[in-house]
């Protein structure tokens, strides 16, 4: 290997390392300059580095991720995390988690709203130790469109409409109970029997509606017919 080539190789290696450190910055009392440069190999004494996984999720989804820490010799500080450059509609909970001195990571929940921005994003994770310089890394987040968004919207719209109908039928049920309470003789017996029947059918309709609300987007229409039938049976009681 000639000297010119060797020089180019070393230069490329240094440039590559320098580029990596911009997104993976060491912190702690052992950091001796503002750039957070570490030793070329291994973890420098009394420093730390953060690690963060790449996370992919769809709109409306949430996932748990671990933010890890690599500790150099003698570094035992607590490190408080801060997240910046979050894409619109994406949140992280808790907002300021702490990696305790005896821990190797901390768990966070990443959540994308139903209208979260789509694409690939780099979130800056900054670690602030009890003593020493801050360290940082990147958390890569990819947000994709939920293919079931339209189906969920249709399901929820139908469920809301049926919930309104159930409220109206509940009012009729209360009126029927009041009429039974005022009646006497055979009329009272007939109305009380009707109240019992209405309660059974009302409970069935309510249970079917709850099943629909919890149904996966690709299955809710299979349950829809059962909901409609249960509601029609309940309506017949009040005719």
CATH topology of the largest domain: Immunoglobulin-like
Question: CATH homologous superfamily of the largest domain, by name?
Answer: Immunoglobulins
**End-to-end distance:** 97 Å
Q: Helix-strand pattern, N to C?
A: HEEEEEEEEEHHH
Give the helix level as a range of percent: 40-55%
Helix/strand-derived category reads alpha+beta
Global Rg:
31 Å
Strand content: 15-25%
Global morphology: elongated
How does CATH name the architecture of the largest domain? Sandwich
What does it look like?
It is a single chain. This protein is α+β, with helices and mostly antiparallel strands and 239 residues long. The protein folds into two domains: 142 residues, Immunoglobulin-like; 89 residues. The protein is built from four helices and nine strands, in the order αβββββββββααα. The strands form two sheets. It has a five-stranded mixed sheet with strand order 2-9-8-4-6, with no helix packed on it. A four-stranded antiparallel sheet has the order 1-3-7-5, with no helix packed on it. Strand 8 and strand 9 form a beta hairpin. The radius of gyration is 31 Å and the shape is elongated.
Quick overview of this protein structure:
The protein has helices at residues 3-23, 149-182, 185-214, 220-237, and strands spanning 48-51, 55-58, 62-71, 79-84, 90-93, 98-99, 105-112, 119-129, 135-144.
């Amino acid at each position: 290997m000639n000297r010119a080539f060797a020089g180019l190789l070393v230069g490329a290696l240094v440039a590559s390392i320098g580029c990596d450190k911009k997104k993976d910055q060491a912190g702690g009392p052992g950091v001796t300059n503002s750039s957070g440069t570490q030793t070329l190999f291994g973890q420098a004494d009394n420093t730390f580095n953060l690690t963060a996984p790449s996370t992919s999720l769809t709109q409306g989804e949430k996932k748990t991720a671990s933010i890890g820490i690599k500790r150099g010799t003698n570094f035992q500080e607590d490190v408080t995390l801060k997240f910046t450059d979050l894409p619109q509609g994406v949140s992280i909970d808790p907002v300021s988690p702490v990696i305790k001195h005896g821990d190797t990571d901390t768990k966070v929940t990443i959540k994308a709203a139903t209208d979260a921005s789509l694409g690939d994003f780099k979130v800056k994770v900054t670690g602030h130790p009890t003593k020493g310089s801050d360290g940082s890394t990147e958390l890569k987040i990819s947000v994709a469109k939920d293919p079931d968004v339209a189906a969920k919207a249709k399901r929820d719209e139908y469920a809301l409409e049926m919930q309104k109908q159930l409220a109206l039928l509940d009012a009729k049920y209360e009126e029927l109970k009041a009429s039974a309470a005022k009646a006497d003789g055979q009329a009272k017996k007939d109305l009380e029997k009707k109240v019992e029947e209405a309660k059974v059918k009302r409970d069935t309709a309510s249970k079917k509606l709850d099943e629909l609300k919890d149904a996966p987007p690709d299955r809710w229409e299979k349950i829809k017919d059962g909901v409609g039938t249960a509601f029609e049976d309940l309506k017949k009681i009040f005719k």
